[in-house]
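TEACHING EXERCISE
Course module: macromolecular assemblies
Task: Read the component lines below, then compare them to the predicted structure of the full complex.
Student: A.B.
Group: 4
Components provided:
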Amino acid sequence: MSERVYIFDTTLRDGEQVPGCQLNTIEKIEVARQLEKLGVDVIEAGFPVSSPGDFNSVVEISKAVSNPTICALTRAVEKDIEVAAEALKFAKNGRIHTGIGTSPYHIKGKFNTTPEKIIERAVHAVKFARNLVGEVEFYAEDAGRSDNEYLARVVEAVIAAGATVINIPDTTGYCLPSEYGEKIAYLMNNVSNIDKAILSTHCHNDLGMATANALSGVSNGARQVEVTINGIGERAGNTSLEEVVMAMRCHKLLDFDTNIDAKQIIKTSKLVSTLMRMPVQANKAIVGRNAFSHSSGIHQDGVLKDRETYEIIDPADVGVKESSIVLTARSGRAALKHRLEIIGYKIEGKELDTVYEQFLDLADSKKDVTDEDLDALVSQGHTKQERSIKLEKLQVVSGLSLIPTATVTMSFDGDVFTETATGNGPVDAVFTAIKALMKRKVHLEEYLVQAVTRGSDDLGKVHVQIEHKGNTYYGYAANTDVITASAEAFIDAVSKVHN
Ligand code: KIV
Ligand code: ZN
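Instructor-supplied answer key:
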């Protein structure tokens, strides 16, 4: 059986220190609830003394979440510790995370003091905190650049004072994986009371090595990793939760595991990215939009035959519906056939050869070929069923202090039906009426309106993406009236849904 590694999530504290990414208390509660679903062991909810908002967030998260331990950050300062203990009073399991800098840069440059005085302050803070809460974690700030021998003395002293988790932060993201691993091994071998505490990694990504350093720490004895969702955090960010968790799952050799429900990873990543308005880079490991997307013909062919040829993680394991095949000039027949099937065309043999030639001509002149392009290409032929569904009439009432209401009339093979619906906006009302008329339970995944040129009297292009029973369907329409274009695009998508 694998050995357990505890996940300490600091998205709401270290992650939230990113300029422009601050969340309000309600948003923080939403993230905390999702972190609980994800299965993290500890949520670092804030730095209570830093602002009333942070204090309040720690209080409200403590009330909203019950499984994970709730942790509050402090400096090694009595006032900070008292305020943190007060903020944690509703937490089922509360932890104070206190600490002080231990590198020469901090001892001299920041505190202008001596190494011995730092130990005294550290011990005092831990004892003070220990009287107020059940659990105390100590951080030795800038441990990455601290002398190992001195660090071992600090760690031994704070464990003796009552700290049960010792955080060894590589605050500046300076260490190499071998160096960071050796630091953890040194502490495991040279701190006499190390069996009374667990060591925690806290790695920053300034040299792109945060995940490697955290794993190296675990391989050498650390049993807690401090992480953020999407690796967010100041400067280049922190170790990312999804990378550490999936590296452990992929490499049974490491023989460690966490309590994380990996199927919640994408949902959590999207929530954090949306609320913090911080887009995830397309090629980000595990959660980037290209992480399971294949564009070269050789890879596409391989993945369609056997996913494992080019994927080490089953996308479903982290909550991604399926790998995506992006159609470009490098795509082969297999990928084209697969995509055509998804959008409703079954094309084989000579007919596929012809469509493939046309597809290559088109792909040469475009970056990537969309479903609308394929639809246009193929629907000129005889492969698709004639559409018998039409939008006949559309009337929308919307405005300030009015309930948006849409009346939609559609014909199905000549039979005409009308439906009226309300919504949280005119488009929502229109879509609800169409869903009722078309008797389809679909889920809207994406809705995009683009102006073809710039004037307000211009053509609006609408793209919609819907989901039905795990499959994705696209719809497209253009009209000078964007509401009509939206209705037509939605009908276009829903009419592709097969039962
Ligand atoms: O990076 C760091 O050193 C920290 C500590 C305050 C834990 O975030
Ligand atoms: Zn940090």
